Amino acid sequence: MADKKKIGLIVNPVAGLGGRVGLKGSDGEQIQEKALSLGAVPLSQERAKETLTILLPIRDQFELNTAATTMGELVAKQSGFEPEIIPILHHPMTTAEDTIEVAKIMKERTVDLILFAGGDGTARDIYNAIQGEIPVLGIPAGVKMFSAVFAYSPRSAGLLVKDFITRKKVLFREVEIIDLDEDAYRSGMVITKLFGFLKIPFYPHLVQNQKIPTPAHDSYQIEAIAQWVIEKMDNLSIYAIGPGTIPSQIGKMLGIEKTLVGIDLVKDKVLFAKDVNERRLIEVLKSESLKIIVTPIGGQGFLFGRGNQPFSPRVLERLSKDDIIVVSLVSKINALRGKPLRVDTGDALVDRKLVGYIPIITGYREKIIYRVTD
Questions:
Q1: Which of 256, 271, 267, 280 is nearest to 22 (CA)?
Q2: Which of 86, 188, 311, 364 is the S-S candidate for 224 at Cβ 3.0 to 4.6 Å?
Q3: Which pLDDT does position 27 carry in this prediction?
Q4: Residue 283 is inside which H or E element, if any?
């Protein structure tokens, strides 16, 4: 085993729990309990399993170290691995302290890379433990994934780690670890903090960028886009207006106090329901025609799967591409430098349904056609 690379696996079993139920995060025991009471289903195990499936054919070429029970052991064994197990302090309700302690032990065991399933909070905990001394890679499984430490998808994470294991030379890059104040985020304020830097194996086509905010100087163009969307609204459909600067401007011009980081429903240009979750959207779809308005995340290019999880696979599978209205500044699209927009809903069939080419409203009576991939 001495000549084999050591991979550490940490799964945050509650990562992403608050996303589809509209809680904008999963940090803290109270939020986790509330999410479960609203019917939330943990997704990080399945996301980790998707990554491990890519690595299974080369399992004899590396040593897998992982945390006990739900923090990695269960999914690793279910995926066909026989990992070295690191005990945890708390079970079944694991804590950030467990993540930090496991990462410290992995550092002591001189693992070559820590692979983790979680969001920005998990990345922050791992940074607190290792201070950038070990390369890491995130399997996107949280609600907030603004840091640049995450692969585009679980499959991308698997391909990247596979390449890391099998190649002799690997390029690395230091990336920022940032996190949001979740309480402020739920109140409609985006307050981020830089915690430090972590090193990742770097392949531009497999890892996402850090989120970039919309520049204030584009206000005229934002108003033009919003005006054109409003003029095109019909009186029969319900419009689900997602998070983001342009959707917020649409709400403002309709005279609605838009939930900045949530999803609001509008019918006949009047507020129908505020800050809805997946369950409410599915209820609406049973009797109403629904259209959704979304904007890609600046710097990352994600349409779905980052920050708007109530637009879940169960919602999107009931919609056609014509029901999805995409709005964006041209500058945001140009910043992608030709890279496609992306979807990562957690359902491969839904993702494939969304890929292809879509129209994007970029101004008043202006639109472009752009590619979407998974």
A1: 280
A2: 364
A3: 54
A4: helix 278-285
Report the DSSP beta bridge partners of residue 361: 327, 367
Q: What are all long-range contacts of 354-357, with beta carbons under 8 Å and residues at least 24 apart?
A: 354/303, 354/304, 354/316, 354/321, 354/324, 356/321
> In the structure encoding, which two tokens stand for residue 184, read together?
């402020």
- What is 188-224 written as a DSSP string? T---EEEEEEEEEE--TTTBPPPP-PPPGGGHHHHHH
Name, in order, each residue with C-beta under 8 angstroms of 191's C-beta and a sequence gap of 6 or more: 180, 181, 184, 185
Residues in the chain predicted with pLDDT less than 50, given as ranges, are 1, 21-22, 35
Is-contact 14 121, C-beta < 8 A? no
Q: Name the residue ranges covered by the structural domains of the chain.
A: 5-201, 216-373
What pLDDT does 35 receive? 47
**CATH homologous superfamily for 5-201?**
Probable inorganic polyphosphate/atp-NAD kinase; domain 1 (3.40.50.10330)
Task: Please tell me the distance from the alpha carbon of residue 361 to that of residue 366, in angstroms, as a whole number.
Answer: 6
Q: Residues 335-373: pLDDT tens digits?
A: 888 889 999 998 999 999 999 999 999 999 999 999 999
Query: Is-contact 316 76, C-beta < 8 A?
Result: no
- pTM of the predicted model as reported, rounded to 2 decimal places: 0.74
**pLDDT confidence of residue 190:** 59
pLDDT at 86: 96
DSSP assignments along 307-360, one per residue: S-TTS-HHHHTTS-GGGEEEE--HHHHHTTTTPPEEE--S-HHHHHHH-EEEEE
- Report residue 153 as tokens: 């998808």
